Amino acid sequence: MKKLLNTLYITQPSVYLSLDGDNVVLLKEEEKLGRFPLHNLESIVTFGYTGASPALMGYCADSNISLLFLTMNGRYLARVTGQSRGNVVLRKKQYNLSEDEVRSAKIARNFIIGKIYNHKWMLERMTRDYPLRVNVELFKETSQQLSSLILEVRACEQLDRLRGLEGQAAATYYSQFNQMILQQKEEFYFHSRTRRPPLDNVNAMLSLAYTLLTHDTASALEAVGLDAYVGFLHRDRPGRVSLALDVMEELRGVFADKFVLSLINKKLISKADFLKKENGAVIMTDEARKKFLAAWQSKKQETITHPYLGEKISWGLVPHAQALLLARHLRNDLDEYPPFLWK
């Protein structure tokens, strides 16, 4: 299994990244803010618009270090990747399967099964751990609805129908999301998923978590030789990492959502960490973003036992494990792609 290296997050605005030997140097108005050896990094995520030198981008591409550019609000701008790695036969198989909607649906439905299953067990865990603080009867009813949808997804062979079932399951799960917020309920509430821009504190954090998870998943897919831009559930769209969006569906709840809920419920973040702009968009302050990213890195280091592989790995390596399993399925080493089923 791949070793989990560090991610360097640049949160200050107007910081320019340059290359000096085998190091990345952070510059702001000619002042050197920091210097980091690149051999310790697997990715660099920078918030802002100043950019990076062509020399650094070339070094990262050659060294398989992903370089992600986001706005200060955490919205995706661009991603630098190097030459395609891995077996060309694997990618050709991926492209051929992606063109066939029936065969794509057979792969895509396992992504959705994983997503719904994990959402179901998030609700079940809440009834077990907080029976006096949530509506147990309602949560159990919602869990049963998700179980029924899993059966429908399992039998589905059409992509359009599969997307409809996924949307139905998401709406069912999100209908109980606000109840999983146990602390600071006046400042942190969830009515519906809002994006571009997020309109409340919870959605602002969810958007950033999903962006980071998408980046990690795309890097994992590229590392095993797959094309992160060619998906099975999410169809081709210029600039969209469709396969990364496919694979990360399983991890939205058990990784990103649980992470955001833990920050709120453990009071690691507060109302003061957010700003509301004139257009209604809610953004995190610079200090809040730093706290968020530090906690995200810490979460990625936590060790779990992978439910399919039976190996102890860190949460940060779960996207790599799922990318590897998907590649094995496309090579016909596995009859089906095994989704990440966390309980």
Automatic annotation (TrEMBL):
Q: Which cofactor is recorded for it?
A: Mg(2+); Mn(2+)
Domain of life where this protein originates = Bacteria
* Any single GO BP term: defense response to virus
Which segment of the chain is annotated as a signal peptide? none
Binding-site residues for Mn(2+), renumbered to this chain: E166, H234, E249
- Asked whether the keyword Manganese is assigned, the reply is yes
| GO terms for MF | DNA binding; DNA endonuclease activity; hydrolase activity; metal ion binding
Which key words are in the record?
Antiviral defense, DNA-binding, Endonuclease, Hydrolase, Magnesium, Manganese, Metal-binding, Nuclease
Annotated EC: 3.1.-.-
Q: Which family does it belong to?
A: Belongs to the CRISPR-associated endonuclease Cas1 family.
The free-text function statement in the UniProt record for this protein reads: CRISPR (clustered regularly interspaced short palindromic repeat), is an adaptive immune system that provides protection against mobile genetic elements (viruses, transposable elements and conjugative plasmids). CRISPR clusters contain spacers, sequences complementary to antecedent mobile elements, and target invading nucleic acids. CRISPR clusters are transcribed and processed into CRISPR RNA (crRNA). Acts as a dsDNA endonuclease. Involved in the integration of spacer DNA into the CRISPR cassette.
Q: State how it assembles.
A: Homodimer, forms a heterotetramer with a Cas2 homodimer.
Record protein name field = CRISPR-associated endonuclease Cas1
Whose protein is this, by species?
Paenibacillus riograndensis
